[in-house]
Structure formats: C-alpha cells, structure tokens
Amino acid sequence: MRMSQMFAPTLREVPSEADIPSHQLMLRAGMVRKTVSGVYSYLHLGCRVVRKVEKIVREEMDRQGAQEVLMPAIQSADIWRETGRWDDYGSEMFRLKDRNGREMCLGPTHEEIITVTVRDEIRSYRQLPKILYQIQTKYRDEIRPRFGVMRSREFIMKDAYSFDRDNEGLDRSYEKMYEAYCRVFSRCGVDYRVVEADAGAIGGSQNHEFMVVSEVGEDALVFCDACGYAANVERAESAKPAERVADTEKVRTGIRKISTPGMRTIEEVTGYLKVEPRVLLKTLVYVADGTPVAAIVRGDRDLNEAKLKRVLGCRELELATPEVIERVSGAPVGFTGPVGLRERIKIVADWEATVVEDAVVGANAVDAHLVGAEYGVDYTADIVADIRNVVAGDACPRCGAELCGARGVEVGHLFKLGTKYSSALGAKYLDEGGVEHPIIMGCYGIGITRTVASVIEEHHDDDGIIWPMSVAPYQAVVMPLNTSESAQVEAAERIYSELCKHGVEAVMDDRDERPGVKFKDADLIGFPIRVIVGPKHLGDGEVEVSMRRDGTVELVKIENVAVRVKEIVDRELAALMPE
RNA sequence: CGAGGUGUAGCGCAGUUUGGUAGCGCGCUUGGUUCGGGACCAAGAGGCCCCGGGUUCAAAUCCCGGCACCUCGACCA
C-alpha cells in the first residue's frame, strides 16, 4: 500500500469530542470517523486492525473446535417474547417494524436465535457437544455512548455458544473457551485479568470476565495478591466480619433520641454529632417487585444493588420515591432507620452493619436520630447478608489479606447459562434411554472493537499509537525522506517490493512531504517498524531500521533489509504467542 | 431521564455581552523555494453562522420552539 493512495486522513489537532487517549488517537490516526453518537465508520487502518483481532479470535476459536456461523442482525420479536427478554431488555434494544407492522429488533445479542436454530436441528445426544461462534455487529441503544468505540451503540462482537448434554460437558466447553480467551488476549498484547463477575440480566451461574487493566475502565475490580482472588466489585464478596464479643463489663448507654435538625446526609449527621461515618447506619428504602424493603449498610459503605437483588430474589429493584419513604418510615427522607418504622417491611442488613456498637440511626421522625442502637436489642433484620460494595483495602473474603483495587475494561465474558434459554425455547435432546433433556448451554463474548480500543489505551505515547506486531494495521513503513532524490526513491522502492515479496505487510510513504510530516504520521499511526531511507547512510548502501516502541535504530544494508525486517516481525509475533 | 455545556469553513477556535461588510490558526488548491521531526514566500478556493418561527430598517448576535453533540449522574451482558 502506498501512503499517497491510502485513505487514512490524519489529524494534527485533537477533535474536541474525544477525551481518552484511544479515542483521540483513533480519530487522529484516521482509523475511524463518527457518523452519529455511538456509531462509527472504520476507515482503512481501523478496518485492518479490526480484521487482525478477528483473525486471532477465529484462529483461537477454531483451535478449540468451535465452528463459525453467521446469524442475522435483524431478529423477530417473537423469539424474544418467548424468553421474556422483549420486555426485560427495555429501551436498550433497537426496535423496528417491517412494512407489515411485524415487530423486529437489531440484535443486541444472539442467545435466542442460536438456541432456536439449534433446537430446530438437534435431536440426539449424538449431535452434542457443539460450540458455535460468530463475529457479528451488535446493536445496543446505550443510554450514554462514550469513549469512542469503547462504549458504542453499534459494535463488533464475537459471540460463542456451547451446547452440552450435562454439566460436566459444559465445564469442558467452558474450559476450552477460557483457554481460548487467555490466548486471544495474550496475542493481542494486552495486560488482562480474569475476574469473577455478576451474571446480570443474562442469567446463569458461574461466570468470568476478562478485563484489560486501564484507568479509563468502567468497571472497578479488586485483587488479592496473596491468594489470587479477583472480582468485579459488582460481584466481589465482602469478608465476614468478626463476631462481636459480648462485653459484659461494658455499661450500655442505651438507646436515646437526639435532635438533628435538618441533618439528612451522612456528612451532615456525622459532622453534627462528631462521630465516624462507620458508626452510622444508612437505611435505604427500595421497592422490590412492588414491595418496599429497607436495606442497612454502614455509613461509610455503598450498597450493592446487584447483591441486594440476589438476596431478595427479585426481578425489579429501584430506590423508593420520597413519597414511599415517607409512608413507610413516617418521616421525610434522611431520617429513616430500622427502629420503629411505621410500616412493617422486610429489613435486610449488611452483616457488617449488625456488629456496629452504639450505632447512630435515623429515628423515623423529623429532625431526629437515635444513638446507641444495638442490633438484636433495639432492632433486628429479616435477612443478614453481604449487600455492600467491596473496596480496595478490605479483607480478602478467601484469605483475609488486604485487597487491592484497579479499574478495567471488560473485553470478554464467559457465562454458564445452564438451561435458561434451552428450557424457555424448548431446545432438547434425547439421551441413550430415549429420555428428553434440555440442552445445557454456555455463552462466551469478546468485544472486538472494544479490544482494539483497549490495545491502544495500553500501547501509546504522546506521539501516537505503538501497535503490538500482532494487531498492527501494517507491520512496517518505508520512508524515503526526500522524494525528489531519485536515489532515495529507487532504494525505497526496491526495499518496499522486497518486503512485500517476503510477506511483510508494508506501506510505502511515497508522498511528496517533508520528513517531519512523515515521521509524525508514522509515529501517530504506529507502524511497529520504520525503514528510513535518508541521505545520511544511503552513500554506504545502508538504511535505518527503527522500532516505534523504543526508537532504537540499526543500520542495515539495502539488500538485507527485507530479510531483517521479516526476522523482526516473526520474532515479535512469536513473543506474543502463548507456549 | 436529571444537571451542566457546546453548535460559526475539513479540524481547532474567536466574534454573541452592546444587532450593522463573517474572522484567526491549521488543513486544502496553484506556482516557486526548500527537504532528518507537522517548512517558507506568493496567489487562491472554501460558510444555510445547527434547524424552524418571531422582534427589527437590519439578526451569527435578541426572543420562542425544536434538533444534534459533549460532560457528570442515574441506568446497563
């Protein structure tokens, strides 16, 4: 490819809409252009990188015996109604109608359609197991698209689905995908971690997320360096607090009501009473499937709605409106507490909250709190469970060591679905004894375009992108510094054609531009290897082979360049290959 | 959906307060000089000032109503 012909409009200035490095660089390097909010066109370079990542994913899926298919992006509402997700998915689904008024959607995911496809064809245990995958454009009408292709409304995803006759088979399929994912992300050159995650709306039991560690990540993670425990904070368990030792010597001050005029927030109350937030108990009123419940966590903690939802086993969970709070507590927002609620509602307490001595709680009365509240004496809970968010610094739930935190970008997710979809859609098989069973499923996603952004996020500097060899749009660029010097042009042309012959993916920067422009563009686009043909060494029959990553330069005889560059390419690719 | 912000040349922005010929830098075109880190000189092209109404002799500017985009929050395989 010749730079003079390439459709890669680079930008000198940073477009104002981008505020993370990967987004800025993808725009500046001419990889993508936005069409509408959250929807991007991939220009030549962006498309090359996407194809590289897809190729790696295909190789690793195929290596595990998965088979590629391609399902439609447009799906009928009918199958989504069968699993109940036509309603559950809500406004995040792009919905449309055909000319006959039939309801359709642009697929946000493909569990329904793959399950229906398999259900219609698979009858016998002899046809199992199967792992099918596709690389497809997905559509999700995100509330707030952001960070360029990191969170977009149209994006490319690899999704795989496994079909097994039993849980042992599912475990094997899951293992295969787990290994494939490790290999995929290693080959892409990203620093990834595998964490335990929340299953969310997709359902299912065990699941893992593959996260690329990054400060721009939208998920908070915790890790234990001592035992290897790693989890998304949505999911991370808190360590069970030490049992409270009954201190018989201690004289209880007893519970008493105090005036706290206008003090509603944790900061106001703790500031007014000169106490630590940790002795204050926050009582939050939620509405779970239409029924109000109270949830209690320590004042310095955040409630984890996913955990609360799981504990309650409810479908819908949202914070109660001020009217509901007033009705159940008898006081305005800010003074709710577990002692003396007006209405008898279910109380869920975080297990850590129940060991707080002499707690401060809302008095369920205007401008008043209670101090000296004791669990088991003054109030009790219907459920005591882990319902708070874990934070860095907490004790590891497995080994007790201190957890550390990081942020991550979710690039892959593995789910054990079980029979959720096969049961709903009637995907069954007959075993040896002629007995019918639902097929056991798993599903496995990789955000292709998000992975591209993550690679850039991890591999860039002030000048531009520093591609790992495996996903670089081109492996090398040949730069004659002055195109009016025929000797430079001739040498560069010879090198370029030899590189192509040796199978190196090369670009010839044949533009009549000043050297500075070529250097800047090469840095920005991030070709891993630059072959610089300039006046300094051409007289000796040599050119510079320079690495984008560290700027190292080696002088190479013109006739040896292709072989040398090919060596470097192969070496770098091998270094990224697992085993 | 809540709060805030921004829409002016391909990109980045000024001009809006106080209504009166639409500007700057980069990029683009042509010619010339230059050629190891985004050159210089000269001459050019390029605008529905987001859209629709209104006020006014006159609107990028004031008023009303939309739309789009961005940020924060709520939300979320």
List the helices and strands and how they pair.
Layout: H1 21-28, E1 32-36, E2 39-42, H2 44-63, E3 67-68, E4 74-76, H3 77-83, H4 85-88, E5 94-97, E6 103-106, H5 111-121, E7 130-139, E8 154-164, H6 167-187, E9 192-196, E10 207-213, E11 219-223, E12 230-232, E13 256-259, H7 266-273, E14 281-288, E15 291-298, H8 305-312, E16 317-319, H9 322-329, E17 346-350, E18 359-362, E19 368-373, E20 383-385, E21 404-418, H10 420-425, E22 428-430, E23 436-438, E24 440-447, H11 448-458, E25 460-461, E26 464-465, E27 476-480, H12 486-501, E28 506-508, H13 515-525, E29 529-533, H14 535-538, E30 542-547, E31 553-557, H15 561-576
Parallel strand pairs: 3-7, 15-17, 17-20, 27-28, 27-29
Antiparallel strand pairs: 1-2, 4-6, 5-6, 7-8, 8-24, 9-10, 10-21, 11-12, 11-21, 13-19, 14-15, 14-16, 18-19, 21-24, 22-23, 25-26, 29-30, 30-31
Helix pairs in contact: 1-11, 2-6, 2-11, 12-15
The structure holds one RNA strand of 77 nucleotides.
Task: Report on this structure.
The protein has 579 residues and is an alpha+beta fold. The chain has 3 domains: 21-236 and 405-456, BirA Bifunctional Protein, domain 2 (2-Layer Sandwich); 256-385, YbaK/aminoacyl-tRNA synthetase-associated domain (YbaK protein), CATH 3.90.960.10; 474-576, Anticodon-binding domain (Rossmann fold, 3-Layer(aba) Sandwich), CATH 3.40.50. It contains 15 helices and 31 strands. The strands form 8 sheets. Strands 3, 7, 8, 9, 10, 11, 12, 21 and 24 form a 9-stranded mixed sheet that branches. It has a 5-stranded mixed sheet with strand order 16-14-15-17-20. Strands 28-27-29-30-31 form a 5-stranded mixed sheet, sandwiched between helices. A hairpin with a 5-residue loop joins β5 and β6 (103-106). The two termini are 33 Å apart. The model has no long low-confidence stretch (mean pLDDT 91). The structure holds one RNA strand of 77 nucleotides.
